[in-house]
Specification:
2 domains, 2 helices, mainly beta, 18 strands, ten-stranded antiparallel β-sheet, about 5% helix
Length: about 325
């Protein structure tokens, strides 16, 4: 009898040994606070986005078409929503028989190990994304603020997983936060601004962006020494700041003062001044010389907030666009 009992205990011990496989009843990634995405190593802007969370032997992956995650705040109560179709919008859970790493998710040729021991595919449901802007501290020197990134809270609504034991539906499944960096801003201009021949626009640019004053008040730039200012409104003196996508062309002075604007380089983001009764354009004109006079006009944009969609930042208390230098003019001859 003892012999048979010993054999039974041995059998139970052998069956109870952990062979490394993970048995899953529910998916729980609540203790994983951050998620990440696979880098796009190609220049293909249409490549899908893969966002993932990893535990020691588990992964949870979302596949979305390119640009489904927007670098813009969503309106309150109006998140982005996408229907899971197991094709372009996918959610996939996997368990493994060993430690899972980023290469298992993002590698062009995934490692041979660990092996997948269980897989749940989402067959229905909604991916809901609520995005918020993250703004850095206000500058103590010029009062400016800058966007430092975006938080995207991702929740699955009424998601159905097809698991080995059959379908399982959850009314709400919180995936968690995914963060993206800010759209790059290139706000340093080292050259002098230019005024279009129709006098309606003044612009300055660098290799990747430009800032322009549109529908300029015609009284601001004139050959009269002094300081003049005009309010930024929806129809006059409004500011546009535009950035361009890399590797889509070279920005030169020939891009400006024509309509329609050239298609290259390709526009990335467009920021427009907010009409809030605070912003003004100020021009200070100085003159040097006696017989030949040179007038210089320094253009300063004051107290302006720039906005793109639902995102915004404060440019500065005083942002100097630059100084326009007129060609010398002959001083009038004094009457005797």
């Amino acid at each position: 009898m003892k012999k048979y009992a010993s054999l039974l205990i041995l059998a139970l011990l052998l069956n109870g040994c952990d062979d490394g496989d993970l048995t899953v009843d529910t998916i729980n990634f609540e203790d994983i606070q951050t998620s990440a995405s696979c880098p796009n190593s190609s220049t293909d802007e249409t490549a899908p986005t893969l966002i993932y969370k990893l535990k020691t032997q588990e992964s949870l992956v979302i596949q979305l078409p390119a640009n489904s995650i927007k670098n813009d705040a969503t309106p309150i109560g109006a998140p982005l929503t996408y229907d899971i179709n197991n094709s372009t919008y996918r959610v996939l859970y996997r368990a493994y028989d060993g430690t899972v790493a980023v290469n298992n998710i993002c590698g062009t040729i995934p490692p041979r190990t660990p092996n997948v021991t269980e897989e749940w595919q989402a067959t229905a449901g909604i991916i809901e994304i609520t995005s918020t802007q993250v703004t850095g501290d206000k500058s103590t020197t010029d009062g400016s603020t800058r966007i430092t990134g975006y938080n995207h809270q991702i929740v699955f609504r009424n998601i159905t997983f097809l698991k080995p034991a059959g379908p399982q539906t959850e009314e709400e499944f919180v995936f968690g936060n995914y963060t993206t960096g800010p759209d790059p801003l290139y706000l340093t201009f080292t050259t002098a601004p230019t005024q279009c021949t129709d006098k309606k626009q003044v612009f300055n640019f660098n290799p990747t962006s430009y800032m322009q004053v549109n529908n300029l008040d015609q009284t601001l730039i004139q050959q009269v020494v002094g300081t003049r200012s005009a309010a930024i409104t929806a129809t006059a003196n409004n500011i546009t700041y535009t950035t361009f996508k890399s590797n889509t062309g070279t920005l030169t002075s020939s891009y400006f003062c024509i309509s329609p604007a050239p298609s290259a380089p390709a526009v990335s983001t467009v920021w427009n001044s907010v009409v809030d009764n605070n912003g003004i354009v100020e021009v200070t004109t100085t003159a040097t010389g006696t017989t030949s006079i040179v007038y210089k006009h320094t253009i300063t944009i004051k107290n302006v907030t720039l906005k793109k969609g639902n995102s915004s930042f404060y440019l500065a208390d005083d942002f100097v666009l630059g100084t326009i230098t007129d060609a010398p003019v002959t001083a009038p001859t004094a009457k005797k």
